[in-house]
Amino acid sequence: MIYVISKLFNALLPPGIFIIILFLAGVFAKRFKWLFFFSAIMLWAISIKFVSNLLIYPLEKFSHKENITPKAVVVLGGGVNPKDILKSSPDAFKREVYGILLAQKYNLPLIFTGNEANFTKKTIQLITSTCNCNIKSYFEDKSLTTYQNASFTSKLFEKLKLKKEIFLVTSAYHMKRSYYLFKHFGFKIITKPVGFFYSPNYKWIDFLPSANNFYISYKALHEYFGLLSLKIRGII
User: Fold this and answer.
1) Could you give the strand order of the β-sheet that contains 72-76, starting from the edge strand earlier in sequence?
2) Closest Cα partner for 194 from 72, 63, 94, 79?
3) 3-class SS of residue 178
4) d(Cα 84, Cα 91) in Å, to the nearest integer?
5) Contact between residue 193 and residue 63 where contact means Cβ atoms under 8 Å apart
6) β-pairing, 110-113 with 165-171?
7) What are phi and psi of 28, to 5 degrees?
């Protein structure tokens, strides 16, 4: 009983409380009732697991493997918090750990791309020293976007005289857009996604709104708009 009450209470936290407010506004409003009801339904929809799964799954199922022998592991940045001991955001930390594991396993250089490289360098050095991993690392620290990640990494590969055949590591939802951008700059790629959001198991509470599902839906929608921009620009 306490479990049920706690879950119902959680559903009242944002965005749940805003869904209720919009619904009540639709009930009592004299004009634009349909707009309030529609907004409430849409907000509820993108805040439940079923819809967030529908949005994120097509992105996360994307994979690509070319017949190559990768010459490096490329890890995309994912944000930092300078006040955190490990600096890297949870998404970024997963990418970095997976990148290190791949670099160690296949004896490849690790190349990190993102403007947060100065912070990330400390995290990677801490991890590699702790696991006693002997990895050569390079850091591209100018890029602010995924397009720049691919562009500046391409220039770094040319400077290092490395063949553009890579393991590409980024979050699963972000892999499709990253792949097309790196391909645009001449890379041949084996995708190595990490940090999956999709989960096929459902409980009754998954049809209650939650901030986590809203966040996943937001991530997915952001990627779809990003892919649309690549389509418009003729990259895919």
Assistant:
1) 137-140, 110-113, 72-76, 165-171, 188-194
2) 94
3) helix
4) 14
5) yes
6) unpaired
7) -95, -15
| Residue 135 CB contacts under 8 Å (≥ 6 apart), including other chains | 100, 103, 104, 109, 110, 128
The first and second tokens of residue 232, run together, are 């418009």
Q: What is the pLDDT of residues 118-138, one digit of tens each?
A: 888 888 888 888 888 889 999
CA–CA gap between residue 73 and residue 107 (Å, rounded): 10
C-alpha span between 187 and 215 (Å, rounded)? 31
Closest alpha carbon to 100 in 115, 80, 120, 116: 120
CA 78 to chain centroid, in Å, comes to 7
- Which structural domains are found in the chain, ordered by start? 2-60+210-232 (no CATH), 72-194 (3.40.50.620)
- From CA 207, how far away is CA 193, in angstroms rounded? 28
User: Rounded to two decimals, what is the model's pTM?
Assistant: 0.92
Say how many C-beta atoms besides its own lie within 10 A of residue 162's C-beta: 16
Phi and psi angles of residue 147, each rounded to the nearest 5 degrees, phi first: -60, -45
Q: What is the pLDDT along the chain (236 residues), one digit of tens a residue?
A: 676 667 666 777 889 999 999 999 999 998 899 999 999 999 999 999 999 999 999 999 999 999 999 999 999 998 888 888 888 898 999 999 999 999 999 999 999 999 898 888 888 888 888 888 889 999 999 999 999 999 999 999 999 999 999 999 999 999 999 999 999 999 999 999 999 999 999 998 899 999 999 999 999 999 999 999 999 999 99
Question: What are the two backbone dihedrals, phi and then psi, of residue 60, each rounded to the nearest 5 degrees?
Answer: -75, -20
- Give the bridge partners for 138, in sequence order: 111
